[in-house]
Specification:
Elements lengths: L10 E2 L2 H6 L12 H12 L5 H10 L14 H4 L14 H5 L16 H4 L5 E2 L19 E8 L12 H4 L2 E8 L4 H7 L25 H4 L3 E5 L2 E4 L10 H9 L11 E4 L9 E2 L4 E6 L3 E12 L13 E5 L17 E4 L10 E3 L15 E4 L21 H13 L6 H12 L4 H16 L1
Parallel strand pairs: 6-7
Antiparallel strand pairs: 1-8, 2-11, 3-4, 3-10, 4-11, 5-6, 5-9, 9-10, 12-13, 12-14
Helix pairs in contact: 11-12
GO molecular function: bent DNA binding; core promoter sequence-specific DNA binding; RNA polymerase II cis-regulatory region sequence-specific DNA binding; RNA polymerase III type 3 promoter sequence-specific DNA binding
Family: Belongs to the SNAPC3/SRD2 family.
Subcellular location: Nucleus
Length: 444
């Protein structure tokens, strides 16, 4: 993978406000169109040269945003290999891509497209629009900090050929510089926090016995520039960094990286942090679940962003959420993982939906049942159950039982199609008559 080293300076986030606020004109911070036009007229009034004003109007015209020979597709772009000076390495990627059919590239190839360019995250930038609330009538006096939270990386299984495929941004969050690291911690969504502890086989329908891991193991920390930031808001939380700092003191090879310090995340504001933009740091929870976090951008809070402080942090991007489907019906979303299945099920552990019969005690033979975790995305409470618009397994199981009692002789696939037709607006009575007539003709 082509890369180069770029030297950047450590940035104290809060210093940006004092550094750039005096030089910013009123126009970028204007919150309504009338004030923006007045500011623009005032700036243009200082231009006394007619020729300069005409040239400025021509250069800023919308016609200059594109030209006739501009390439708009990926197939057109990769055909152009820019010239390089002799002392620079050739662009092997651009030379290789036009010579191969992109659709026929091997999934395991070093230059495979999926490995070179990971799938983009779902862009939710519209969540940060200013809105029409009364708060938009006042000028903001803060900074916006954009942070990328990545999925945990299995280092032991990482292949250098596919490393880009592992570094997947799970969330892109925008916070105010006046908010603390504890606010960032609460905004991070990870399936490990939602795992039910222990064997769920005997408690499938008893919600009082379902204990999520985040309720029991609440300790966590950030590691940023040699400092551990522990979450000590709960009296039961432990200072996880103490054992790490003690261990690091016994390692001579870590002397050049220390000394390490410790503080609390709830008392540390983002504006007080000194970080490198683009450098990965760590968020650790549940003992060994490590997320890389990257400070992506710091900018002044202008008229382009939401003005209500209570709306932050805001989710502006996430990874694709791929549901786990049942290994038996291969249609419904899985609700349970069954282990110790032997040869009765296709895999061990095996994902199952809730439409299959369990025993009276909620256990199928000696299977160990665990729940498939579904993570709710911040700012999207209505679309976070992980099911989307798919038919729920509970509803399908109930309908299947009714179908068997009525002796409709519909197999699960036919029943699922009928349910989808009813959900799309088809009259159930007419559909029942149609299916009945079709069954009679088939039997005849």
């Amino acid at each position: 993978m082509e890369h180069r080293t770029v030297l950047v300076k450590k940035l104290k986030i809060g210093s940006l406000f004092d550094m750039y606020t005096p030089t910013v004109q009123d126009e970028p911070l204007t919150l309504n169109e009338e004030d923006a036009l007045n500011n623009l007229r005032r700036e243009f009034s200082s231009i006394t040269s007619t020729a300069l004003l005409n040239q400025l109007e021509k250069d800023c015209s919308l016609d200059t945003l594109s030209f006739s020979d501009e390439h708009n597709t990926l197939e057109e772009v990769i055909q152009i290999v820019p010239d390089r000076s002799p002392e620079l390495m050739p662009l092997n990627t651009f030379t290789h891509l036009p010579q191969n059919d992109m659709k026929s590239m091997s999934r395991t190839s070093l230059l495979g497209l999926l490995d070179r360019v990971p799938s983009p995250s779902v862009d939710l930038s519209y969540n940060i629009h200013p809105g029409d609330s009364n708060e938009t009538l006042t000028k903001p006096i803060d900074l916006l900090v954009t942070i990328g939270v990545y999925k945990p990386v299995p280092i032991s299984h990482m292949d250098l050929c596919t490393q880009a495929h592992y570094m997947t941004m799970a969330q892109r969050l925008v916070l105010l510089a006046s908010q603390s690291l504890a606010v960032l911690k609460d905004a991070i969504r990870c399936p490990q926090d939602k795992v039910w502890l222990g064997d769920c086989s005997n408690a499938l329908d008893d919600s009082t016995l379902h204990v999520a891991a985040e309720k029991l193991y609440t300790s966590s920390y950030f590691f940023i520039e040699g400092t551990f930031y522990d979450d000590l808001r709960n009296l039961q939380n432990k200072t996880l960094s103490s054992s790490l700092i003690g261990w690091a003191k016994t390692k001579q090879e870590l002397d050049s990286l220390g000394p390490f310090t410790q503080t609390t995340m709830e008392t540390t504001m983002l504006r007080d942090l000194s970080v490198y933009i683009g450098k990965p740091y760590f968020y650790v929870h549940q003992g060994n679940c490590e997320h890389a976090i990257v400070f992506l951008d710091v900018q002044l809070h202008g008229a382009h962003a939401c003005q209500d402080p209570s709306m932050y942090p805001i989710l502006t991007g996430r990874c694709y959420l791929r549901p786990v489907h049942c290994a038996i019906c291969r249609r419904l979303n899985a609700r349970w993982f069954s282990s110790n299945t032997g040869t009765l099920l296709p895999s061990d552990p095996c994902p199952l939906c809730g439409s299959y019969s369990l025993s009276r005690h909620g256990n199928l033979l000696d299977f160990v049942i665990g729940r498939v975790t579904k993570v709710a995305n911040i700012n999207h409470p209505k679309s976070t159950d992980g099911t989307g618009q798919m038919l729920s397994s509970e509803t399908f199981g109930l309908v299947q039982e009714i179908s068997n009692l009525l002796n409709t002789e519909l197999d699960p696939e036919e029943l699922l199609i009928c349910m989808k037709l009813i959900e799309s607006g088809i009259d159930p009575t007419g559909l029942a008559l149609l299916v009945h007539n079709a069954k009679q003709k088939t039997d005849a």
